[in-house]
Specification:
The protein has a single domain, classed as Glutaredoxin. Helix content is 47%, strand content 20%. The chain is built from five helices and four strands, in the order ααβαβαββα. It has a four-stranded mixed β-sheet, sandwiched between helices. Helix 3 links the parallel strand 1 and strand 2. The longest helix has 24 residues. The termini are far apart. Keywords: Redox-active center, Signal. Pfam families: Thioredoxin.
């Protein structure tokens, strides 16, 4: 193999290696729901998305993919997402009147602005998020 081809291959590998930390950060789950974290964000007047999620739920996974893309947009930069684990945190889900996984609840401060259940369409989730902006 010629020296120039080796140089090109090296440059490509280095470029790919530099992207790995960025892509792994994008796959990090959102902060877990805790009552303290939720109340602190409410006191700040933050826009809060509570994602009632279950690891085994295909609808939750589909929502997660769409929301990940939407929340990376500048328009939704202020949205703070909290993931509420349906299987481990049922008492919190019930306190929010979330009666099943794949429920998304949007707050601005202490006010609930919108709620959807099992919605995965990008356009509908975009409209949902816009309800609190």
């Amino acid at each position: 193999m010629s020296q120039s081809r080796l140089s090109i291959i090296k440059m490509c590998l280095i470029s790919l290696a530099m992207l790995l930390p960025v892509s792994s950060m994008a796959d990090e789950p959102p902060p877990a729901f805790t009552q303290d974290r939720f109340e602190a964000l409410q006191q700040e007047g933050a826009v809060i998305l509570v994602d009632v999620w279950a690891s085994w739920c295909p609808t939750c996974r589909a929502q997660g993919e769409v929301l990940s893309d939407l929340l990376s947009e500048e328009d939704f930069a202020e949205v703070k997402k909290l993931r509420l684990d349906w299987d481990e945190q049922k008492e919190h889900a019930e306190s929010l009147d979330a009666w099943r996984q794949s429920t998304l609840i949007l707050y601005r401060g202490e006010n609930e602005m919108a709620r959807v259940v099992a919605e995965t369409r990008e356009s509908a989730l975009r409209n949902f998020l816009e309800a609190a902006l």
